[in-house]
Specification:
Strand 5, helix 5 and strand 6 form a beta-alpha-beta unit. 46% of the residues lie in helices and 19% in strands. Helix 1 packs across helix 6 and helix 2 crosses helix 4. By secondary structure, the chain is α/β, with parallel strands linked by helices. This is NAD(P)H-dependent oxidoreductase. Keywords: Flavoprotein, FMN, Oxidoreductase. InterPro entries: CE1759_FMN_reduct, Flavoprotein-like_sf, FMN_Rdtase-like_dom, NAD(P)H-dep_FMN_reductase.
Length: 205
């Protein structure tokens, strides 16, 4: 079954960032299922991990909860990553989480980017502040990023436009998953270890 890790870097509860992340994950799953590919999401909420992320940046070691979260991300088949935008940039929590990942762990990973903010003036932040970070990590970033301003959750017209962007982005991620050249995890790629009897049998030749 295809696994999509949905990462939310929202700082409040409830969080519009988490809401957008969930809807993007659901859109991707719906698109995959419609094409006959079973899929599900795993949620990674960064807010409860803030102290562990800081400690990992200072010490180089990840506590158990953070280790589980990073494993969920790098072992997934695709990632939805959504951050709030502050002062025209991604949140420090989002950037710090990406900095504790191994620099090669996201290579070729299909990634859908999203962001939330108070005003549409921040809508280009996905391209100038978030996309370059994932490009450095060599992720396979889908073309459609989704930004949701406060007004996008309000009037019917804006909400309908946001729904359309979410559906398109979900379809883009589903396509990227089907076309992915993501290599197997290293443990899966290791050759099988011969048993002891086989090794002894080979000595007779």
């Amino acid at each position: 079954m295809t696994t999509i890790a949905v990462v939310s870097a929202g700082l409040s509860e409830p969080s519009s960032t988490r809401l957008l992340a969930d809807r993007l994950g659901e859109a991707a799953v719906s698109s995959l299922v419609a094409e006959g590919t079973p899929a599900h999401v795993v949620h990674v909420e960064l807010r409860p991990l803030a102290h562990e992320i800081t400690d990992a940046m200072l010490t180089g070691f990840a506590a158990p909860a953070l280790s589980a979260a990073t494993a969920a991300v790098v072992e997934a088949d695709a990632v939805v990553f959504v951050t709030p935008i502050f002062t025209a940039g991604v949140s420090g929590l989002a950037k710090s989480f990406l900095e504790v990942l191994d620099k090669d762990s996201m290579a070729d990973m299909p990634v859908l980017l999203g962001a939330t903010g108070g005003t549409s003036r921040h809508s280009l932040a996905i391209d100038h502040a978030l996309r370059p970070v994932f490009a450095y990590l060599r992720a396979a970033i889908v073309p459609t990023g989704v930004f949701a301003a406060t007004d996008d959750w309000g009037t019917d017209g804006d909400a309908a436009a946001l729904d359309g962007r979410i559906r398109r982005a979900g379809a883009d991620l589903a396509w990227a998953i089907r076309a992915s050249r993501r290599t197997p995890q290293e443990a899966d790629a290791l050759p099988a270890t011969p048993d002891f009897a086989s090794l002894l049998g080979g000595l007779g030749h």
